[in-house]
Amino acid sequence: MPIKLGANAYGKNAVNLSRIIRHGSHHEFRQVSVSVQLTGDFDAAHTLGDNSLILPTDTQKNTVYALAKEHFTGTIEAYGLVLARHFVSRNPQVRKVRIELVEHLWQRMEFDGQAHPHSFTGGGSEKRRAVVALTAECTATVWAGIKGLMLLKTTDSAFVGYPKDEYTVLPETTDRILATKCEAEWEYTSADLDFESLYQKVRTSLLRTFSEHKSLSVQHTLYAIGKKILEETEEIKEISLVMPNKHHIPFNLEPFGQANTNEVFVATDAPFGYITGTVVRG
Ligand SMILES: O=c1[nH]c(=O)c2[nH]c(=O)[nH]c2[nH]1
């Protein structure tokens, strides 16, 4: 049986780029982790050690910084497209480039209702993410997403009617805490869109459905969130959601002579329910 090289790709991961955008004394601050991945004609590099078609990952890293001065002034989606077009147009050996950008969300400080011109606080666990793929034929695909979005509501969440066997001890509940650290990723229908307003629209829709939905399970809420986003936003082809169930378990206060009327809980890290799903059209 002959042996040959299968699928392969290479690039620089986690290029940590930060940038100040100055408008006089009012500054914007952006911080993003960029990963570049190239797919293409790299057989000779693997089988012969011939590096003549290998654009060094160090050069890829430098390109992320060099193009940032002129081009990283808007959305991460737009900057991803600039980088992808650069690598594809300069390197005929590249069949496909994939750029992943994960943005740390710094929040501007505010004092007495006044936005501070140059000071920020860390945005917590929430990150904004974009992935851009561009082929040598210039077909671009853009995905956008949210990571680490902590969501919690204190009512309008139930879990009843599930099968019970000899190992089931979970009591049915019609009023529990629903908490998750949500991840969402959606694919756009085009690479020529207002990525900023679409991102804000999707994020707001996600929060609104989470808070307003009469949840019968995490699965039920996940689908409701995805369905609403697709109904409201024709520029989105499909959306995938990850919604771990961050359990808050009622603590037994009976040994202390008190009734726990759904007020005191143990917040548990592990294990946790892991609920994922993609909502599609048609
Ligand atoms: O919303 C839920 N979905 C489940 O699949 C599940 N399983 C479980 O033990 N609790 C829950 N809650």
Structural commentary:
With 282 residues, this protein is α+β, with helices and mostly antiparallel strands. It is built from 6 helices and 12 strands. Helix 5 packs antiparallel against helix 6. Strands 1-2-3-6-7-8-9-12 form an 8-stranded antiparallel beta sheet. The chain has a two-stranded antiparallel sheet with strand order 4-5. It has helices spanning 43-47, 57-66, 68-71, 76-90, 195-212, 218-232, and strands spanning 15-23, 26-40, 94-104, 107-111, 114-121, 127-135, 140-153, 178-188, 236-245, 248-250, 265-267, 273-279. It has 2 domains: 10-138, Urate Oxidase (Roll), CATH 3.10.270; 146-282, Urate Oxidase, CATH 3.10.270.10. The site of uric acid (URC) has 7 residues, from helix 6. It catalyses: urate + O2 + H2O = 5-hydroxyisourate + H2O2. Pathway: Purine metabolism; urate degradation; (S)-allantoin from urate: step 1/3.
Short characterization:
The chain has helices spanning 43-47, 57-66, 68-71, 76-90, 195-212, 218-232, and strands at 15-23, 26-40, 94-104, 107-111, 114-121, 127-135, 140-153, 178-188, 236-245, 248-250, 265-267, 273-279. The chain is α+β, with helices and mostly antiparallel strands.
Strand order of the largest sheet: 1-2-3-6-7-8-9-12
User: How much helix is in the residues?
Assistant: 10-25%
Low-confidence stretches: none
CATH class of the largest domain: Alpha Beta
Largest sheet: 8 strands, antiparallel
User: What letter string, H or E per element, gives the SSE order?
Assistant: EEHHHHEEEEEEHHEEEE
Question: Which structural class is indicated by helix and strand composition?
Answer: alpha+beta
Mean of residue pLDDT? Answer: 98
- At the third CATH level, what is the topology name of the largest domain? Urate Oxidase
Instruction: State the domain count.
Output: 2
CATH structural architecture of the largest domain? Roll
What fraction of the residues are assigned to beta strands by DSSP? 35-45%
Q: How many helices in DSSP terms?
A: 6
Enzyme class: oxidoreductase
Catalytic activity: urate + O2 + H2O = 5-hydroxyisourate + H2O2
Family: Belongs to the uricase family.
Function: Catalyzes the oxidation of uric acid to 5-hydroxyisourate, which is further processed to form (S)-allantoin.
